[in-house]
């Protein structure tokens, strides 16, 4: 199958980790793939055309959409993967820091989606895959603000899917668990650290580091994205990896008090 038979794909945050693995997997699956990064990288990476894009800037987003249209003439698949993390007590982040997090993880998704939608509506077809997380399904102490961004993406994606089906466009979610990437190393720290949280925050950082080290390979998430992209009757959500599947089932079928108890036990917090 040639690159053009599957269509044209845009993957944000594709310079490393899940984004890079996803871009490569889509290329192998037959897509012509454009990836984005905030900083300049090689013009092509394993057949993926790389473009510079800041998802917090409207002009930057529109520029790369126009560039893809000038080169390929269409966009059939959008994978909103760009995002940043933040670990710490919710009280330890200023409103400005919380806004900066939402500007990337939520409004960045809105910007790219809004720029691509007119293209897909003209085509009367398209698929949008938004990268969520198991933290879009459950509470997560010391990840309150990050989890809030993923909960927002869950609600946005479900609602948007209902709006767009009449145009031949589907919106789906991919929900990874711990993944072996540099995500933990690139976490943003709170901008107003409070000593009262030092001990448990350090404990949570260690737990995240351990989870990442033993987590799924980025290729596991990439496989879920390819499946979500190709499914002729897409599901609303695709979990990626064993842990994500377990969390999804727990959240769906266990009573709330058991979810609460298990979550506190998992995080070594007093029940």
From TrEMBL:
GO terms for molecular function: oxidoreductase activity. Coiled coil: none annotated. The keyword Metal-binding does not apply. It comes from the Bacteria. Pfam families: adh_short. Residues 7-199 form the Ketoreductase domain. Keywords: Oxidoreductase. InterPro entries: KR_dom (IPR057326), NAD(P)-bd_dom_sf (IPR036291), SDR_fam (IPR002347), SDR_oxidoreductase (IPR051911). PANTHER family: SHORT CHAIN DEHYDROGENASE, SHORT-CHAIN DEHYDROGENASE_REDUCTASE FAMILY PROTEIN. This is Short-subunit dehydrogenase. Signal peptide: none annotated. CDD domains: 17beta-HSD-like_SDR_c (cd05374). Belongs to the short-chain dehydrogenases/reductases (SDR) family. It comes from Rhizobium mongolense USDA 1844.
